[in-house]
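wait is this the right file?? whatever heres the structure
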């Protein structure tokens, strides 16, 4: 994919589907192996991608393994790009949590209700945007114009909520596994911390049906 001179393009990749994702488990700071079939599809698709001079990744294994498939150098690990910490709900599915009163409160108001032994949305949002500012600072200082960010579904939704050209609520953004969403800025707008001017979405390549 070619971009015009005078622009900065940052592609957000969600990690490849994992075994725990197939169970629809809450997978925040714990980890899970990538699904082999999904990984193979992503490897095949990624061969056609351009080389990324800068790759940033969550420091969790599922993202680092996905990042290692992308063409380019080693990924810079950023803990700020982790998924939300689901605390004592980590690894559980809805059926196991549905009778937990704290879980029901959170489902009804996920933006203000706390997660037991985990993060609330405000903490998560602040952390993610701090990580984004690290990325932006590095690209500005090193005059980077193209980068990949490998992270999680919640992180991508948060970044799109704050950076996409049009404003949409958090849950209206889609972030499929192994999908790629490219945000494009004019150089000056990127330096000023503005929303991007163009957004390009790629179809997911690593998602399995069911």
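ok assuming it is, sequence goes like this
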């Amino acid at each position: 994919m070619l971009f015009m001179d005078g622009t900065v393009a940052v592609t957000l990749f969600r990690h490849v589907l994992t075994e725990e994702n197939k169970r629809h488990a809450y997978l925040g700071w714990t980890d899970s192996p990538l699904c082999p079939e999904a990984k193979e599809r992503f490897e095949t698709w990624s061969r056609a991608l351009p080389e990324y001079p800068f790759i940033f990744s969550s420091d969790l294994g599922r993202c680092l393994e996905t990042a290692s498939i992308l063409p380019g150098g080693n990924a810079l690990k950023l803990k700020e790009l982790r998924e939300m910490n689901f605390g004592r709900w980590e690894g559980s599915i809805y059926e196991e949590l549905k009778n937990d009163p704290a879980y029901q409160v959170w489902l009804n108001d996920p933006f203000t209700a706390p997660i037991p032994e985990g993060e609330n949305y405000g903490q998560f949002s602040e952390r993610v945007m701090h990580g984004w500012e690290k990325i932006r600072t590095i690209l500005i200082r090193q005059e980077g114009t193209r980068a990949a960010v490998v992270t999680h579904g919640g992180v991508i939704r948060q970044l799109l909520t704050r950076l996409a050209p049009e404003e949409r609520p958090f849950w209206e953004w889609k972030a499929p596994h192994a999908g790629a969403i490219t945000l494009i800025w004019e150089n000056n707008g990127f330096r000023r911390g503005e929303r991007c001017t163009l957004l390009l979405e790629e179809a997911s390549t690593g998602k399995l049906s069911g």
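The longest strand covers residues 7-14. so i think its the right one actually
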